[in-house]
Design a protein that fits this description.
Layout (H helix, E strand, L loop, with lengths): L2 H4 L5 H20 L4 H21 L6 E3 L4 E3 L1 H19 L2 H6 L6 H17 L4 H19 L6 H32 L4 H10 L5 H17 L9 H7 L2 H8 L1 H17 L4 H21 L7 H22 L2 H27 L1 E2 L2 E2 L9 H4 L1 H15 L5 H15 L3 H27 L12 H14 L3 H19 L2
Antiparallel strand pairs: 1-2, 3-4
Helix pairs in contact: 2-3, 2-6, 3-4, 3-6, 4-6, 4-12, 4-13, 4-16, 4-22, 6-7, 6-13, 7-8, 8-10, 8-11, 10-13, 10-14, 11-12, 11-15, 12-16, 13-16, 14-15, 14-20, 15-16, 15-19, 15-20, 16-18, 16-19, 16-21, 16-22, 18-20, 18-21, 19-20
Amino acid sequence: MNGETLNLLPALPELILAIGGMALLMLGVFQGDKSYRQIANLSILLLLVCMVVMINQVGGDRDVTFNGMFVTDAFAVFAKTLVYLGSAVAILIAGKFLSEHGIAKFEYPVLIVFATLGMLIMVSANNLMSLYVGLELQSLSLYVLAAMNRDRLRSTEAGLKYFVLGALSSGMLLYGISLIYGFSGTTDFDVLATSIKGAESMSIGIVIGMVFLLAGLAFKVSAVPFHMWTPDVYEGSPTPVTAFFAAAPKVAAMALLVRVLINGFPGMVAEWQQIIVFISIASMLVGSFVALVQTNIKRLMAYSSIGHIGYALVGVAAGTQDGIEAVLVYLAIYLTMTLGAFAAILTMRKNDGMVENIEDLAGLSTTNLPMAVAISIFMFSLAGIPLLAGFFGKWFIFLAAVEAGMIPLAIIGFLASVVACYYYLRVVKVMFFDESAGAFEGGQGQAVSAVVGVSALVNSPVSFLLIGSLGSAAAWAANSLLF
């Protein structure tokens, strides 16, 4: 034990979140489900307080604690800010939906708090052991969230599929970690990077271990060919849970993937680059072409998220500071697009229940023009239409790939993006040009409407005014990763 080990300040937000989460759990245990609204509000407050504490700790230095297992730097602060916001919004938009479906359990916000804690540990992991602890803390919470609606067959099925496939991915991840440790003698990213750079020849055991490690992480980000759980889990889970799955965990897992590759395996760029290029191309193509035949809006968004992870992986494949910067910008924009789109889906309700099929949105422009315009902005932004936020995200990603000499990858990404435009525009066409399928009921409350409005504004052409500041913050974060 040394002074570095005992320095708890870098992990202060996580410690506050852990203690606060346990306190909220005990409050819920003693007060029961009637305390849902109180615990939900306290959970949002707790997340925002931890975010403020973290931001106030920001400095120019890279702080390492817990004997090298936990690192705090600008990259972690940037990614964690997105995670905090995504988690807080997921709790904010869920209240009315959960109440209407009889599943307003106090466990929902508590599980999101603990899942968020796992994500924060993932983003700051500087060791394969802390990586696994954070990943499993997140995953165990998500398995329960997916199966929250126990009276609904599809929700139970979603939770079971997610659990079984998640256990398989964890097995592959642990096998990869064991191989890396066996052939390198360390699980510390810094020591691992130094030993790989100093080696005369690359150990085949470390290469195979890295492949299994990346396979496990690819499952967490829904990258092809480890995406098979995503459509079923997205469709079966309660819509607010699906919104959470599509936002914060994806950001955390992508940030973890970037840190592992850049900090842990900087001397093996040629090896991991081939893997990332393959899963990036596969994700973009599967996400674009399979989504063409989807009729359920949640399954459509599932394949959309798979495609968007493929675009983000283009920046990772570049392996440069510009590539990392592009990934961070893309993740920030993706978060707003996804949360806004799912918040809008939450407002779509008719007499027979929630609207889930694309055709059910027919004629929305005649009954609720503001909502139709907001959904159109999200669809156009997801498609990457110029002047909207999604366009700038893809612009940075493809530009980084071109500057890194990966022009064929950028061309494939561009073509996949063109194909994806079809199913995004189909949603807009149904809302504005098809005959009305009947009036929609009232929305899900002011909180959901506020999320839709703010997200639509951020993704509108106003994003042109914000992209400069976002790019500067991402550049600052990316530079800290390449210490």
